[in-house]
What does this fold into?
Amino acid sequence: MKKKIFYRCLLGAPLGLAISTLMTIVISAILGDGGYHAVVPELVRDCGGELHAVTLQAACSLLYGAAWAGASAVWDAEKWSLLRMTVVHLIVCSAATFPVAYFMYWMEHSASGVLLYFGIFLAIYAVVWLSQYALMKKKIAAINRKMGNSAAR
It folds into this structure.
């Protein structure tokens, strides 16, 4: 299991960086001022320059991607209940996501900003989880129908 988590982390790290970079491109395009906004101004200020801020954000994006990919191994724990898998996955992903979002200034640094962040995070998590759950139920039903048709022959 540890080896599987390690390899998933290795694959997830560059994916996290790629997604982060893509997000900065999309945000820059949405702003539409012709500039590339690699990081938020507050991070540049805290880091003492844009290069340091971009480097820190890249490192955090690598860690972020690794954490999410490593956390996906909980779905392979066959002896765990779906509830336990979900809670562990949610806790690990939340623990990885919140500090990165906070220190990279991807959220407002206030009580309302933290609450809004967690509200959005949980809403997105729930939508993705429910979508995956419905998809799996559909696949299982199709397999059961096929097996039922095979058994009837």
Summary: The longest helix spans residues 111-152. The chain has two domains: 1-106, 108-153. The mean pLDDT is 91. Residues 108-153 form one domain.
